[in-house]
Prior knowledge:
Blueprint: E1 8-12, H1 16-27, E2 31-36, H2 39-49, E3 52-55, H3 65-69, E4 74-77, H4 87-98, E5 105-111, E6 122-123, H5 134-148, E7 156-161, E8 163-165, H6 171-177, E9 182-184, E10 192-194, H7 195-207, E11 214-217, H8 225-236, E12 243-245, H9 246-249, H10 255-262, E13 266-267, H11 270-274, H12 285-298
Parallel strand pairs: 1-2, 1-4, 2-3, 4-5, 5-7, 6-13, 7-11, 8-10, 9-12
Helix pairs in contact: 1-7, 8-12
Amino acid sequence: MRPPAPRKLFVFGLGYSALIFARRARAKGWRVAGTTRSTDKARALTEVHGFEMHLFGRDQPLAAPAAALAGTTHLLSSVPPDRDGDAVLDRHAADIAAAAGHLRWAGYLSTTGVYGDRDGDWVDEGAGLHPSGPRGAARVAAERGWLDLVRVGVPVHLFRLAGIYGPGRSAFDTLRAGSARRIVKPRQVFSRIHVEDIARVLEASIARPDPGAAYNVCDDEPAPPQDVTAFAAGLLGVDPPPEIAYEQAAASMSEMARSFYRDNKRVSNLRIRDVLGVRLAYPDYRAGLRAILAGERAD
């Protein structure tokens, strides 16, 4: 029997979400390469995880893209668009296309913000893309750019992520920092996803590739943000912050924060469950927060 063909994952933007996926791939014996904008972070990722690191940014394209992408079987981009567009595509679309012959799978991490505001209604991957602001519009443009690569043989998949949380980035952290607020906007809900479950969805897609497909990556229960904060406070055994009406809080919120509250929708995850066969480890925020706290106490 032939040994399995070697697998190499290349990640543009080895940040919070992509790092979890990359670590899991490395644990399975994959070669992992990726990019960061920081020399210090590149050195740390190599020393700690054994990744082959490259510097990349809009103003610092890959120094030797053909060599960096050589042997890549799986490619992921988690780099968000900037005001000029998608830097990965702008700098390296041709290089990625040239690597299509040995790419078995490629993924782009997008956002559920591409759907815009639905006044609390449910949306699935068949819904039209009507982003509310420039950040969402930039994501739609980036998605189209990545899908254009399917035409030249790059097996691109889109992953529309809901609000990401996990160890080090959860309601526990804002409560401990004293920055948590329970902002109440009637009927407002957000969808969420635990960072470990993002990796599970990507792995399921790799096992069942379908170039051109889009997937919503979220848990089973869209919920009001104030409920999440209150639940986290209860787990910590502290009083939750008082509720504040959105109209009162909006004046001191950043434009980015206000933009999140402008969009109100329930995002369906039926496709990742029914098509990819994903069973989320953390199907709601309660399961996710309990696991984060248990992990902290075990450490």
